[in-house]
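Example record used in the benchmark description.
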Amino acid sequence: MDFCVPEPIWQGQDAYIIGGGPSLTGFNWEKLRGLNTIGCNDAYKLGTAFCNICVFGDVKWYDSHFTSLQTYEGDLYAAVGTTKVKFSDDVKVLKRYAKGLQADGVGWNGNTGMVALNLAILLGAVRIYLLGFDMKRTKQNSNWHPNFLNDNPDSVYKKFLDWSKYVKMDWDSKYPDIDIINVTDDSALDIFPKIPVSAFWEERITG
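Model output (C-alpha cells):
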C-alpha cells in the first residue's frame, strides 16, 4: 500500500478540526465557510463548503458510508490500522502510528480527532482550533450526528483521554511553535488551552 504524505498547503495558516462531540449539536456551520477545515468521520455530510477534508480511521465506518462518500467532493484521508483493505482511488491513505504526533504519517491515539489534528500539522497549519472535542457524553448523546457503530462510548472516551498524554508530549517536544486551542465548552480534554465557544466566535467577529 502506498502511503500519502500531504503537501503543506496550509503553511502558516489556521485550521479548524470538526470533532464529533455533542456540543456541536445545533452549531451554525456557516461560521466555517471559507476556512481551512478537517472533519472527522460523518462531518463529510456537511459538504465541502464547511468540511474541506474528511478523515477517518475505521474500516467499518468506511464500509458503512461507502455509497454516500461517492458524492463527497473534498479530499478524503484514511488512517486505518491495516494494510489489507482496498479503498477507492479517491482515498488518500496516511501511515498510521499507534501514538503521538508524527512527521510522515499520523498518530492514532485511540481516536480520529487526534488523527485530524496531526493531519492539520502535516498540512502546515500553525494555529489549530478544535471544535466538538467533548471527550464525553452529554445527556446520553455521544455525537452531534447519529452514530450507530459504538455501543460503549464511555470506555472509548477513557481511552481517548489516557492516550492524549502522548499527544501532549510530542506537541511540547516536536511542535512547540504550533498553537492548539480547544474551543469546546465543558470538554474533558485538558491537555490544550481552552476558550469558551461564545467568546471565541465573538472575538472572530469583532477582531
